[in-house]
């Protein structure tokens, strides 16, 4: 598919040292954090500028070669897997923060900047980019745009889409567009910005990003509440909001999630009583410590209506870091312990108990165990179905059936099948659970407008019978 | 265009008493709040349900009849003007709040509910829908979706788009879709919700809306700061944010805006010193009065760096209402006093002084006066170009030239031509100032996907050479 002629032209664009065809590199760029899937591209190129991205796309368009935009490869839905081979276009060299605009509270950045690096850079100027995916230490801001990433603080501060003001995008034919203006408000034409956010690299390649920032928030209080009953933890989530509190994080972890994390990763042991079924990790933030204590008190009043063990207040930054590490390491602990499959269910937050009970029942019926945790304040529950000692046959038959049932449950609760991980490769066959044929067809026609030759990350988002 | 046969079929759908062809009704439904423009539809129909809307669209699609969705007719860009005649489809009978969901902090509503009615209904349950267009007492929530309306509190709470979770939409061919799920997070397919928001009735008809709510906020502090220098008021706007404050409103009014409002509408006289050039109206809100006083103090510290007169604190609710009435009545005061043309410029907030100075210079060069006011915290400045004693000839030649120059200035400051009023009819010829041909073409192709026969509010948003 990639002829010598094409390769030479790619070398002309980016230089020989940024074109790779060795199997090791192809394999490296053919996997992300989605299970153990590997789909190497035919060739990897690493452009350094918008113009180079545009030149590559012009070439690919002319020859109808699939192109997969590749970020930090931390995705959880297989968005960067080159299922149709072609060019793996890594954005890692577009890694400059172009401007931190302290006057307008904005940052202009290239896509290949690590999210935490961006956060730290703006924090040095007293500014705050609150979107906080668990992978923030390694994921790229461009990938966050592609997947509309969320994370722990979305419950108060929103997700990636809520901070994107304007995007520079290279279209599949190499044309370069801007989606909007660098303004907080915009009622000028269709919202191309929000069409790009969450489109998982299927409409174009984002090469420049304008993000809104907010003033830094100076204090926070973190507490860990152990519940004797898992469902009560889920019920408490919406009760906290009904008490008028908007926490800056409200995370749920069922018992196994914590046990596994304590066992398999380096976090302190909490010496939990065996009867504890789940925890809520709750943070409130603001600029006035006395108010935060007041809000923490109100939260206590709410959770004390349920059967809980002693609440742990994190007094020091070290204690806070330890609790956050515990939360952030759950995925890693599961990964180290067993083959697994992760689903990213989301429902209106009060439906969380029904979702949780339903997932457990579906697991029991189909003979699989799941570890559930996630951003409960958003109604976003990560479901890790774990293989453990299931036979391969059961794993391959019962799990897809169970996943389908979980997604149907999600839909019946007015929810959907991905809150923040995207559809990518691994969820695409489930799209018809949540969208009608008309709705999917409408989306696919939009895809064709941007990408008439279907070269832009083909084989993603849409079910096979549409693609 | 509307044959007897078509009329009879419309009568079959909605009933005889909801089909109108008398000139008075046609005229009524052929104008909004945009200057003195009147473009009556050929017929007005008032469906009562999604199914009726769908039946009307099926009929219109079959016969390629233009349809204009009509809300409360408070728009400022001529979005509902039936420039191609056809069916005026009023949503006024879809006026039910379907469910206030206190558990999930959501409201499900039909589009024909007055925004303030919706706000009051959720407030009774201790909940808050913060989007606050100046016309909230008469506009429909469906119109807010169409225009992505903002208002005074957008600076802290965001605009309409930030609260829309899911929409039921009748497509131009009569198909009914849902754009998303009722969830706070969503990474499942393209964002059809945000494509609909702000699309000004050109892609489909919104028949059901799911909005996010937040817990009620209990207190606020309002202050009015008189500036001796207009530009300094504009500079102070971004200085307030840089001090770490996010006000819940930050409004700018130049001197004439206040004088005209005091003169022509019923608001108390502020006995201003003649040297005052502009005011900022600043609100902070929250649940802790002592914190609000602290924040008000910080704001004082900022504004006292500029040349200001005595700051007015609104102590009572009556005083607050009076100040807000002053702000909200500016548009009315201009309208009562002269022929005018309103522009809805928006720039990154720190560019506001440059915008303001530029607008005044453009006015001077072209011989027109403007009254400027608006949501300065968002960089959103409403520019009312006033005719007063200009000759018709000068009005018709100099003003369009000046408007073009103002929009070019806006673009050069990384801004755009509408912050919250939309493009509609009156700004569409200026779209090529802020979008390239490729960008406009992309938008128009999206339009064609939804609306292949160009029957859905035709003649809006896109410049004539595209439409």
From TrEMBL, chains A, B:
Task: List the InterPro entries hit by this protein, alphabetically.
Answer: FAD-bd_oxidored_4_C, FAD-bd_PCMH, FAD-bd_PCMH-like_sf, FAD-bd_PCMH_sub1, FAD-bd_PCMH_sub2, FAD-linked_Oxase-like_C, FAD-linked_OxidoTrans_Type4, Oxid_FAD_bind_N
Report the GO molecular function annotations. Answer: FAD binding; oxidoreductase activity
Could you tell me the keywords of this UniProt record?
FAD, Flavoprotein, Oxidoreductase
Cofactor names from the entry are:
FAD
Is Flavoprotein among this UniProt entry's keywords? yes
Which Pfam families does this entry report, sorted A to Z?
A: FAD-oxidase_C, FAD_binding_4
* PROSITE patterns according to UniProt: FAD_PCMH
The answer, when asked if Oxidoreductase is one of the entry's keywords, is yes
FAD-binding PCMH-type domain ranges (all copies) = 37-216
Name under which the protein is recorded: FAD-binding protein
Q: Which organism is it from?
A: Paenimyroides viscosum
